[in-house]
Design brief:
166 residues; mainly alpha; 5 helices
């Protein structure tokens, strides 16, 4: 669903796919669910793993800076988990209320911001792991590289593809 130009999206779908708006919303919801299934498992595993780290013996050896990065990473991971699971709760509350348009639209936004927070959490994990194993400078470099790769793969490249035929 093109949230920038919904009327163009609707006209294209009607012409190219012979879809009604309801069929398009059903397809978009189904696609979103598939994407969320992939990300939910990963973000939930990451969050669970992060929550166990303070109870490990070596955790006390982390520098105050790495502990701060760890805490920021946990916050990002928790928020990503909330945002990536939120469409399920929204669906439950809107079920059988004929509110598919706001459901798909809000789930799209939650998924996008959840992915960005997941990316921030993954970059934070790179900082903490490389910082603990090799040193804080290498940790920061690893985190920046991870963040750049994710921004390119998850944001810049799709935006470039989006505007190729525009």
């Amino acid at each position: 669903m093109d949230v920038d130009h919904p009327e163009l999206d609707q006209r294209w779908n009607a012409a190219a796919r012979s879809e009604t708006e309801a069929e398009r919303l059903d397809r978009n919801w189904s696609n979103l669910l598939q994407e969320l299934r992939v990300t939910q498992t990963g973000v939930q595993l990451l969050t669970g793993l992060l929550l166990t780290l303070p109870f490990q013996q070596r955790f006390d050896s982390l520098s105050p800076a790495l502990r701060d990065v760890y805490l920021a990473t946990v916050v990002c991971s928790l928020l990503a988990t909330v945002l990536l699971v939120a469409p399920v709760g929204i669906h439950r509350l809107l079920f059988r209320r004929h509110k598919l348009r706001p459901l798909v639209s809000s789930a799209h936004r939650f998924a996008f911001w959840g992915l960005l927070l997941l990316g921030a959490a993954l970059a934070g994990v790179a900082v903490v792991v490389f910082g603990a194993v090799v040193g804080e400078t290498v940790g920061v470099i690893a985190g920046v590289v991870a963040a750049v790769v994710m921004l390119v793969a998850w944001v810049a490249y799709p935006l470039w593809l989006r505007h190729l035929d525009s």
